[in-house]
Amino acid sequence: MILKAIKHTTIIILVYMYIYSPPLTLLPFGLIKLILPLVYFVLFFSRKQRKVLLLFKNELLILIVILFYSFFISGLNFNFEFPFVYQNFGLLFEAFPIAVFLAVYIIDVDKKNINTLLNTVFYVGLIASVISCYLIVNPEANYQMNNEILRSSSWIKEVKYRGFGFASMLSFAYGITQGIICAITIYFLSQEKKIFKRLFLVLAIIIFLISIFVNARIGIFPVFIIILYFIIIKRKFKLSLFIAIFVFALTQINYESDYVDVKTIKYALDFFSETDNLISGSNEKTTYNILFDMIIFPSNIKDLIFGSGYSIFGIFNKSSDVGYILQIWFGGLIYLSLLLSLVVLMAKKIVKIKNYKWFFYLFLGTILVCNIKGYFISNNSAFRILILIYVGLIYINKSNINVTKTIKNN
Question: Which of 113, 173, 244, 302 could lock 382 by a disulfide, CB 3.0 to 4.6 Å apart?
Answer without folding.
Answer: 173
